[in-house]
Design the sequence.
C-alpha cells in the first residue's frame, strides 16, 4: 500500500465522529434514562435504527436528508459555501450517525443501572439535578459509557455503506480506508486490499482488547 | 471494588451527614478524573496521529468515469502528468451511479459516461459544460470465462454455462448492451434466472476472475490482455463513451489538461490499444 491517506482520513473522521457521538449520545442517554414514559422506548428504538438498518439504506436516508436539494443540505451550503455531501464533513456525519446508537444504548443501560437511592441521597443533600448527574450518575455509569464510546469508535472507523453513499469514494478527499479496500478489490489490487484489511482488523482487535480490559467490570 | 463500597455506604446512610457526602464526592471525582484522563489521552493520541500525518495526497482534478475506462485511464493520467504536470484522481463506478452522485452535488471535475444520454441529462440539469461534450470513443463487449471454464466458440453458446455475470442494466450501460446481446441471440428468456448482476462492469470482471461465475459479458477494455472472445458489434446498440467537463470543473485547468491528453494523438493510441473504437 503506497498511499496511506485513507488510513489517516479514517482515523481523523472516526475520532471527530466519536467525539460528536459521545457528547450527543451521553446527553440523549441521560434524558432517556430519566424520562419515565413509554415513549422513551420508542425514541430509543428510533435512535437505534442505524444499527438495524442496512448501512446503504441509512446512507440513502442521509443523502436524501442532507443532499444539496434538501432543506438541511441547502442550509448547510448557504452557511458554509459548499455542499455537505461528498465532503469530509459528510463522512463525519455518516460515521457519527452510525456510532451514535452504540453510545446511546450502552450509556442509557449504564445510567438506568445506577442505584436510584444513591442519586436520591445526593438530592436529599441538596445537590441540583445537574450536580447529581455530574457527580453521581455519570461517574457511576462511566464504565458503560466508556464501553459504548469505544464500540462507537470501532463502528465509525469501519463504516462503509453510509460513508460511500454520503461522502462518495473520492481519492484524496473522502476515500476512507474501508472504501479504499472496496475500491482496491474492484481494481484487482489485491496487495492494497490485503494491507488495508489487515490494518482495519488490527485496529479493531486493539479497540476490543481496550474495551474488555479497561471498561469491563473487574471482580 | 471502590464502587461497591460507595454503593453500600450510600445504602446505609441514605440521609447521611455532610462528611460522608464529602467523602463520596471525593472518591467519585477521583474515579471520574482517572477515566477522563484515560479517555482524553487516547483521543489526544489518535488526533495527533490523524492530524500529524495529514493530507499528503491531493489531486488537481477528480474524474468520475465509467468503470470500463479504469485500465486505459490509468495510462491517460500518466500521459496528462507528463504533458501538463497535473495529478488526476479517479472515481470509477457505473455511469448511472456517477450521474446520480453528480446531480446530488458530488465535486467531480470531469464526467465520463458509457452512455451519452446520461451526459445530456447532466448538461440539461446545469451540471455540465455543453461546449466540452465529446463522444470520444465506442466501447466493445467481450466474453470471458472463469479459469476452470473454457471460452465459448461463439456468443450463441452463452446459454451452455450455468452462471452468467453482466453489469446491472438498471444503471450500467454495459449491462444494457449485454442484455441486448442475449435478447438478439434469443437466449435471454433461457438465461434470465441464471444471470448474476454486478454493480458495474469492472465488478463483473472481478466476479468471473474470482470464479464466482462461469462466464461474463464484460467490457473489452478491461480484458484485452487476457483470453477473451470479442462480441459482434451488430448484436447491440453502440456503447458511446462520452465525456463532459462539469460546471464546477470548467474553471479547473487540470480538468482541461486531462481532456486534452485524452483527445491527443497519444491518448487515442492508448484508447485503441484497450480495444476502444476511436472516432477520427
Sequence:
Amino acid at each position: 500500500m503506497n498511499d496511506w491517506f485513507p488510513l489517516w482520513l479514517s482515523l481523523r473522521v472516526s475520532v471527530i465522529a466519536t467525539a460528536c457521538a459521545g457528547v450527543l449520545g451521553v446527553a440523549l442517554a441521560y434524558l432517556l434514562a430519566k424520562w419515565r414514559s413509554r415513549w422513551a422506548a420508542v425514541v430509543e428504538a428510533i435512535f437505534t435504527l442505524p444499527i438495524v438498518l442496512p448501512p446503504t439504506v441509512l446512507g440513502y436516508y442521509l443523502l436524501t436528508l442532507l443532499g444539496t436539494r434538501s432543506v438541511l443540505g441547502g442550509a448547510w451550503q448557504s452557511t458554509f459555501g459548499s455542499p455537505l455531501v461528498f465532503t469530509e464533513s459528510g463522512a463525519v456525519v455518516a460515521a457519527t450517525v452510525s456510532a451514535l446508537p452504540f453510545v446511546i444504548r450502552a450509556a442509557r443501560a449504564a445510567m438506568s443501572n445506577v442505584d436510584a437511592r444513591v442519586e436520591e441521597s445526593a438530592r436529599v443533600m441538596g445537590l441540583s439535578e445537574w450536580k447529581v448527574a455530574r457527580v453521581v450518575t455519570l461517574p457511576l455509569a462511566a464504565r458503560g459509557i466508556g464501553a459504548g464510546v469505544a464500540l462507537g469508535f470501532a463502528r465509525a472507523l469501519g463504516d462503509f455503506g453510509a460513508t460511500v453513499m454520503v461522502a462518495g469514494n473520492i481519492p484524496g478527499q473522502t476515500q476512507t480506508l474501508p472504501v479504499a479496500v472496496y475500491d482496491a478489490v474492484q481494481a484487482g489490487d489485491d496487495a492494497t486490499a490485503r494491507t488495508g484489511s489487515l490494518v482495519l482488523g488490527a485496529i479493531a482487535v486493539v479497540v476490543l482488547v481496550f474495551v474488555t480490559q479497561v471498561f469491563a467490570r473487574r471482580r | 471494588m471502590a464502587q461497591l463500597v460507595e454503593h453500600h455506604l450510600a445504602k446505609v446512610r441514605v440521609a447521611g451527614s455532610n462528611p460522608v457526602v464529602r467523602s463520596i464526592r471525593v472518591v467519585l471525582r477521583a474515579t471520574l478524573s482517572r477515566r477522563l484522563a484515560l479517555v482524553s489521552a487516547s483521543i489526544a493520541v489518535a488526533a495527533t496521529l490523524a492530524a500529524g500525518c495529514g493530507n499528503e495526497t491531493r489531486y488537481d482534478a477528480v474524474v468520475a468515469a465509467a468503470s470500463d475506462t479504469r485500465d486505459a485511464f490509468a495510462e491517460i493520467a500518466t500521459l496528462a502528468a507528463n504533458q501538463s504536470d497535473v495529478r488526476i484522481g479517479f472515481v470509477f463506478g457505473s455511469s448511472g451511479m456517477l450521474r446520480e452522485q453528480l446531480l446530488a452535488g458530488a465535486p467531480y471535475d470531469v464526467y465520463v459516461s458509457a452512455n451519452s444520454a446520461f451526459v445530456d441529462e447532466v448538461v440539461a440539469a446545469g451540471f455540465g459544460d455543453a461546449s466540452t461534450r465529446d463522444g470520444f470513443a465506442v466501447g466493445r463487449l467481450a466474453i470471458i470465462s472463469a479459469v476452470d471454464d473454457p471460452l465459448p466458440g461463439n456468443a450463441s453458446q452463452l446459454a451452455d454455462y450455468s452462471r452468467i455475470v453482466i453489469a446491472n442494466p438498471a444503471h450500467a450501460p454495459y449491462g444494457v448492451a449485454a442484455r441486448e446481446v442475449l435478447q438478439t441471440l434469443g437466449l435471454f428468456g433461457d438465461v434470465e434466472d441464471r444471470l448474476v448482476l454486478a454493480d458495474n462492469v469492472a465488478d463483473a470482471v472481478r466476479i468471473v476472475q474470482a470464479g464466482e461465475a462461469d462466464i461474463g459479458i464484460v467490457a473489452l477494455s478491461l480484458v484485452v490482455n487476457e483470453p477473451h472472445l470479442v462480441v459482434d458489434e451488430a448484436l447491440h446498440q453502440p456503447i458511446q463513451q462520452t465525456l463532459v467537463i462539469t460546471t464546477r470543473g470548467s474553471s479547473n485547468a487540470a480538468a482541461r489538461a486531462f481532456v486534452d491528453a485524452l483527445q491527443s494523438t497519444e491518448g487515442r493510441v492508448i484508447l485503441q490499444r484497450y480495444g476502444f473504437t476511436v472516432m477520427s
Observations:
- The longest helix of chain A spans residues 5-34.
